[in-house]
């Protein structure tokens, strides 16, 4: 009989402690996504630029960045503005010149101006080397 009372008390305690109400919790941190800029200048005839937002913890996917103005400057003078393609890649028909200094400015509504500067390295001379082994 004592075993039945003990089991009943344990069962009652377990039922009280383990039963609870279920409530959906929305994990919205209300963080503002950051702008991500990826651009590598080259002497190719078309420069590409990728603009995106970071994905916050509460988002299933990052927001798509479609509204921005990206301008490339060469030696302090505006070259032109990047145009967004249907694939989401921004393009500018321009071949960077070795030894010149470039500045990329990206303005996204609601964010501070984002910019980066670089000097395009001077052209490098490539030397082709062949190794020959004499087999005896």
Please provide the ordered H/E string of secondary-structure elements: HEEEEEEEE
Q: What is the strand arrangement across the widest sheet?
A: 1-2-6-5
Largest sheet: 4 strands, antiparallel
Stretches where pLDDT is under 50 for at least 5 consecutive residues are: none
DSSP strand content: 25-35%
Counted by DSSP, the helix tally is: 1
Number of strands: 8
The structural class is mainly beta
Rounded mean pLDDT is 84
First-last Cα distance: 99 Å
The helix content, as a percent range, equals 10-25%
- Report the radius of gyration as a whole number of Å: 30 Å
Shape: elongated
Summarize the SSE layout with pairings.
Blueprint: H1 2-18, E1 35-39, E2 46-53, E3 69-74, E4 77-81, E5 83-84, E6 90-93, E7 101-107, E8 114-119
Antiparallel strand pairs: 1-2, 2-6, 3-4, 3-7, 5-6, 7-8
Describe this structure in words.
- The radius of gyration is 30 Å and the shape is elongated.
- The strands form 2 sheets. It has a 4-stranded antiparallel beta sheet, with no helix packed on it.
- The mean pLDDT is 84.
- The longest helix has 17 residues, at 2-18.
- The protein has one helix at 2-18; strands at residues 35-39, 46-53, 69-74, 77-81, 83-84, 90-93, 101-107, 114-119.
- By secondary structure, the protein is mainly β.
- 12% of the residues lie in helices and 32% in strands.
Could you list some keywords that capture this structure?
about 140 residues; mainly beta; four-stranded antiparallel β-sheet; about 30% strand; elongated
What is this structure, in a nutshell?
The protein is mainly β and 136 residues long. It has one helix and eight strands, in the order H-E-E-E-E-E-E-E-E. A four-stranded antiparallel beta sheet has the order 1-2-6-5, with no helix packed on it. Strands 4-3-7-8 form a four-stranded antiparallel beta sheet, with no helix packed on it.
């Amino acid at each position: 009989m004592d075993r039945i009372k003990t089991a009943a008390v344990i069962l009652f305690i377990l039922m009280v402690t383990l039963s609870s109400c279920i409530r959906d919790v929305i994990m919205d941190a209300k963080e503002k996504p950051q702008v991500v800029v990826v651009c590598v200048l080259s002497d190719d005839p078309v420069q590409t630029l990728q603009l995106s937002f970071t994905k916050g913890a509460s988002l299933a996917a990052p927001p798509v960045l479609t509204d921005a103005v990206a301008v490339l400057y060469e030696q302090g003078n505006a070259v032109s503005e990047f145009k967004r393609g249907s694939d989401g890649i921004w393009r500018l028909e321009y071949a960077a010149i070795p030894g010149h200094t470039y500045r990329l400015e990206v303005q996204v509504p609601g964010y501070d101006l984002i910019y980066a500067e670089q000097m395009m390295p001077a052209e490098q001379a490539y030397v082709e080397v062949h190794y020959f082994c004499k087999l005896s």
